[in-house]
Write a structure and sequence with these properties.
Layout lengths: L6 E9 L4 H10 L7 E8 L8 E5 L3 E5 L10 E8 L3 H11 L15 H13 L7 H4 L1 H5 L3 H21 L49 H11 L4 H20 L8 E3 L3 H8 L4 H7 L2 E4 L3 E4 L3
Antiparallel strand pairs: 1-2, 1-5, 2-3, 3-4, 6-8, 7-8
Protein name: PPPDE domain-containing protein
Organism: Haptolina ericina
InterPro entries: PPPDE_dom, PPPDE_sf, PUB-like_dom_sf, PUB_domain
């Protein structure tokens, strides 16, 4: 086995919030969180060309050519070295663990894509490498504050309700990515139709200063809507929303940063003009004010 061809292994890290966590986490949970990580394990199999194959946990165990798993670029690539495992051995391992990684078993806090990546990386490296704790435990760390504990209760309650009613956990942020057949040759992940938010979902409205609850169901629905837009439109929407949140954090005493003029050209084009952009701002705690502007709540 000493002379067997060896393949390279890396963990690709993506920020599902596209910068919004870094800008808004302090206001929402009282703790700085730099990203909401999704990870995939990328293997460049010995003797192959191209970017490699990415393995990740979406609506089940998924595989895709590296770089095609997400609609955003990786914000970090963690090199784990080489493996002597073959592709056939990895696929056999994935078949063994796949019953534990389905849409129904997903848990946003304790059993997510990062836990899957850690198991795969540990298998490939013989325990020598894995997903760093700063990524693996980000949910536990982020929800350790008093505000975070309240958010945890909301998330867990929603998960329990959704599992009971849908026989699957719809909080999976990649639940609209179809799982792959592990008995078939590697193929690109094919998105299924996104799950629409519940018709019962409501958006809280209030006056500035009253504060507002973060509607996680509405937020997920809005993010899925934004996900339908073109890449540049998504980037513009997320970037503008993150900047607006950062302005409030940097200038907490200035009322002008708590209102957004509807006539603002950048806002109208990049947020209101993007599919799901208005819904995203509502879910984050904004409210319409007489059709002339927006006020920011909860900060």
């Amino acid at each position: 086995m000493a002379n067997s061809p060896r393949s390279t292994v890396a963990v690709h890290v993506y920020d599902l919030s596209s910068g919004m966590a870094k800008a808004m986490s302090m206001a929402l949970i009282g703790k700085q969180v730099d990203l909401i990580p999704h990870t995939g394990v990328v293997v460049q199999w010995a003797g192959t060309v191209g970017a490699g194959t990415e393995y990740f946990y979406g609506g089940g165990v998924c595989t895709t050519p590296a770089g095609q798993a997400m609609t955003m670029a990786a914000c970090e690539v963690i090199q784990l070295g080489q493996t002597s495992k073959t592709e056939a051995e990895l696929r056999s391992f994935l078949l063994q663990i796949s019953p534990r990684f389905t849409a129904a078993t997903y848990n946003l806090l304790t059993h997510n894509c990062n836990h899957f990546s850690n198991e795969v990386a540990t298998f490939l490296t013989g325990g020598a490498g894995g997903v760093p704790g700063r990524i693996l435990n980000v949910a536990e760390d982020a929800l350790s504050t008093p505000q975070g504990q309240q958010l945890r209760a909301v998330i867990e309650g929603m998960q329990n309700t959704m599992v009971a009613s849908n026989a699957a956990n719809q909080l999976n942020p990649l639940g609209h990515v179809a799982a792959q057949s592990l008995n078939a040759p590697t193929a690109a992940a094919v998105p299924a139709v996104p799950v629409a938010p519940s018709a019962a979902t409501t958006h809280a409205t209030a006056d500035p200063g009253e504060g507002g609850a973060l509607d996680l169901t509405a937020l997920r629905g809005a993010l899925l809507e934004v996900d339908k837009a073109e890449v540049e439109a998504r980037r513009g929407c997320y970037g503008t929303a993150a900047k607006l949140g950062q302005n409030i954090i940097d200038n907490p005493g200035e009322a002008k940063y708590r209102r957004i003029k509807m006539a603002n050209a950048a806002f109208a084009k990049k947020v209101a003009g993007c599919t799901g952009g208005t819904e995203l701002m509502m879910a984050l705690g904004t409210f319409a004010a007489g059709g002339t502007g927006w006020g920011w709540l909860g900060v």
